[in-house]
From TrEMBL:
Entry keyword set: ATP-binding, Magnesium, Nucleotide-binding
Lineage of producing organism: Eukaryota, Viridiplantae, Streptophyta, Embryophyta, Tracheophyta
Pfam families: AAA (PF00004), AAA_assoc (PF14363), AAA_lid_At3g28540 (PF25568)
Domain of life of the source: Eukaryota
Region called Disordered, residue ranges: 145-166
Similarity remark: Belongs to the AAA ATPase family. BCS1 subfamily.
Keyword ATP-binding: yes
Name under which the protein is recorded: AAA+ ATPase domain-containing protein
Gene Ontology MF term list: ATP binding
Cofactor: Mg(2+)
Alphabetized Gene3D superfamilies for the sequence: 6.10.280.40, P-loop containing nucleotide triphosphate hydrolases
AAA+ ATPase domain segment(s): 259-404
Length: 478
């Protein structure tokens, strides 16, 4: 029977079915209308907590009243760690730590634990599921792995064959009627929560000296290894070095050496040496002692200050080449490269000497505490006293150079959350030819809130620098 003839001569049973269907539609329409009305009123009149309770109650009533097939349509959102273009997904890197805060270690049988510096992070194991409740609505999260085609240039070792990568993925499921809540409120809430937590973790204690006294402040320094624009390989090896250092209590005990490490950061002004020190302190959660040697009148005052430092701390002396110029030359003729010269230095009252500093750092200071890091920075490595450059003195020499392409991409991501832009190829070409500092680049990127406008400024600036003779260009590019 076709539809028109069926409507023209309905059978009695068909008529009943139509009636029942009409009632159901009327009921559903009324329910939908009331739901919209009630939701609007609730939004405007009820405080958040009451609204959550009402929402939960409404959902329970609806579950009982409506036929099963009309109850729930589940919305599923997939959040891949790496998107199809091979670009890391920022929301994935926010959602993972957020979910880590929702993992109850007592409630699950299996969980992952990672320790970064002094931070401990819990997370879900693959294929685990947890439920988070936001504004009374349940959001169910599951971790999975996803496969995507390997792109030319990919170098991840996280792959099981030649043509595919495996990477992490999250699946978020919730009642489809809460799609707006999920996208407009829940997702931004997660991003904001993780952002605040990152900021909170960035509060480092910075201590400075006035004369022979330390005084401290707690300060949110925004520099982290993520925001730092530098050669990626150097960044990786520095982070690995810090991790190794942190976990080597037994090693240092066994070899009978003090648990300390020294880093020399060198490079032109504005390349991020001070930012790197802050990133190290943020990463390790160490206290930062910023020693101003011009405030220190004698070796004994210096020793008092150094002995007053806590464990798990970084001692930084900036522009070390400027601190001892005259005295170092004096000492060099005296010590002829020897280290055992602290007692040969000028009397304490005559001021601080490089040998006094180095000997004390290698001696009493490093054995009187644990997990100590010392950082010297300089713009002119070639001007440093050879005693500072001798093998074994500073464990790692880190060059902070002009802005390379990778460094620029980090800055662009920091400022505009962009990983690609039509102006990128021209900027990449120009950066290969011009020496500009990350500080100068940061300044350009700050000039507009619009990525296109700021990047155009960057192009013009680089083109201008490119026309100048090299020496002049790098001077202006600072
Ligand atoms: N590598 C970088 N990554 C991110 N931002 C940077 C970098 N280098 C410089 N900047 C920006 O420039 C500002 C100045 O940089 P910073 O003081 O760290 O450089 P520096 O090498 O220590 O300079 P100086 O030798 O003059 O002390 C920073 O606050 C930061 O905003």
């Amino acid at each position: 029977m076709d539809l028109s003839s069926a409507l023209a001569s309905p059978s009695p049973s068909y008529g009943k079915a139509v009636e029942a269907y009409k009632k159901a539609v009327t009921l559903a329409t009324a329910a939908a209308t009331y739901t919209v009305l009630a939701r609007t009123m609730a939004r405007e009149l009820l405080p958040d907590e009451v609204r959550d309770t009402v929402r939960r109650a409404a959902s329970a009533v609806r579950d009982h009243v409506l036929p099963r097939r009309m109850q729930r349509r589940v919305k599923t959102i997939h959040i891949a760690q790496i998107d199809d273009d091979g670009i890391p997904n920022r929301f994935y890197s926010d959602a993972r730590p957020y979910l880590g805060t929702r993992v109850d270690p007592h409630a699950v049988d299996e969980l992952c634990l990672a320790v970064h510096g002094a931070r401990r992070r819990l997370s879900m194991v693959p294929r685990d599921t947890i439920t988070d409740v936001f504004e009374g609505v349940e959001f169910k999260w599951t971790t999975t792995r996803s496969r995507r085609r390997r792109r030319r240039g990919d170098d991840s070792s996280d792959s099981d064959d030649d043509s595919h990568h495996e990477s992490g993925s999250l699946v978020l499921c919730f009642d489809a009627e809460h799609t707006d809540l999920a996208l407009e409120k829940y997702v931004p809430f997660i991003t904001a929560t993780v952002g605040e937590e990152r900021l909170r973790q960035c509060a480092i204690q910075i201590v400075m000296n006035t004369g022979s006294f330390w005084h401290g402040i707690t300060h949110h320094h925004p520099a982290t290894f993520d925001t730092l624009a530098m050669d990626p390989e150097m960044k990786r090896s520095l982070v690995a070095d810090l991790d190794r250092f942190l976990g080597r209590r037994e090693y240092y005990r066994r070899i009978g050496k003090a648990w300390k490490r020294g880093y020399l950061l060198y490079g032109p002004p504005g390349t991020g040496k001070s930012s790197l020190v802050a990133a190290m302190a943020n990463y390790l959660r160490f206290k930062l002692y910023d020693l101003d040697l011009s405030e220190v009148q004698s070796n004994s005052t210096l020793q008092r200050l150094l002995l007053g430092m806590d464990n798990r701390s970084i001692l930084v002396i900036e522009d070390i080449d400027c601190c001892f110029t005259a005295k170092s030359r004096e000492e060099k003729s005296d010590d002829a490269g020897s280290d055992s010269d602290s007692d040969k230095g000028p009397p304490a009252t005559e001021g601080v000497t490089l040998s006094g500093l180095l000997n004390f750092i290698d001696g009493l200071w490093s054995t009187s505490g644990e997990q100590r890091i010392i950082v010297f920075t300089t713009n002119y490595k070639e001007r440093l006293d050879p005693a500072l450059l001798r093998p074994g003195r500073m464990d790692m020499h880190v060059y902070m150079g002009y802005c390379c392409w990778d460094a620029f991409k980090t800055l662009a991501r920091n400022y505009f959350l962009v990983d690609d832009h039509p102006l990128f190829p021209v900027i990449q070409t120009l950066l290969a030819e011009v020496e500009v500092t990350p500080a100068a680049m940061s300044e350009m990127l700050l000039r507009s809130d619009d990525a296109g406008v700021a990047l155009q400024e960057v192009v013009e600036f680089l083109q201008e620098q490119d026309k100048k003779p090299q020496g002049e260009a790098s001077r202006d590019g600072k």
